Amino acid sequence: MTEQKQVKKPSARRRARECTVQALYSWAVSGNTAEQVE
């Protein structure tokens, strides 16, 4: 028997949180100004 997992698309709110955390991490690690982080 093969069972397929149904993959849900992340909600917009969750995606926004992930992007925010990634930007904060990039900012902290690089030492650049907040304006330079994309």
From TrEMBL:
It comes from the Bacteria. This is N utilization substance protein B-like protein. It comes from Haemophilus influenzae HK1212. The lineage of its organism: Bacteria, Pseudomonadati, Pseudomonadota, Gammaproteobacteria, Pasteurellales.
